């Protein structure tokens, strides 16, 4: 841990491509020297975590669980470890997210204005926002990822959980009960690149950080990979009850075609009757 008492905590399980993009983009962040990185590996089976961090251009501490704890269990375990190591501020970053180059300096500049929690991820799925100023908005709901925590507030939150398997959805309820305002970066300093998973089910329900800017080659590469995966996975997002785009196009064409007039039951004109 650095002298500032800051820690970036990244829980992860499999999804190597996303984790590599996360770390590559994090390497471009300013003030990273003041934020040591700790990865909590939940017994990944698709790769050896040591191979991933070997060539990362900054120091990374890896904590590997003896057994798989699940997403929330791994997150809670990692956060508790950060507190046991006397962290004063913890930036919780999911392994399928990338951050902007000024994410950490933005957090340091604005954290003193908060009640001990600041989200750098302005998710389109977490309700309407009340504008505070040019940098911050206030929301009633945020996700647990890409949030910066004061250690004392984080400790209270963890103690208020109903077990380790309800971190992500319980946080906002606890904040409301304790009167903690949820301030969020108006221009998202984090972006979600995880296309597959239980929280990515169909169009209209995909996570996205509003206003995130692509500033570096690493950002562009991460977004390009996520976009290609999305385009190649479109079949899983189309609701089964909704006609395909081709079928809807065909129906639209049929509607615009001139309707055929039904045959009329008329007697042939006398002039065309054939004489016997």
From TrEMBL:
Q: Which domain of life is it from?
A: Bacteria
- Pfam families associated with the record: Glycos_transf_2
**GO terms for MF:** glycosyltransferase activity
Q: What is its EC number?
A: 2.4.-.-
Its organism's taxonomic lineage begins at: Bacteria, Pseudomonadati, Pseudomonadota, Alphaproteobacteria, Hyphomicrobiales
Q: Any idea where the Glycosyltransferase 2-like domain is?
A: 8-104
For region Disordered, the annotated ranges are 257-276
Name the species this protein comes from. Answer: Hoeflea poritis
Q: Which Gene3D superfamilies match?
A: Spore Coat Polysaccharide Biosynthesis Protein SpsA, Chain A
**Alphabetized UniProt keyword annotations:** Glycosyltransferase, Transferase
Q: In its UniProt entry, what is this protein called?
A: Glycosyltransferase
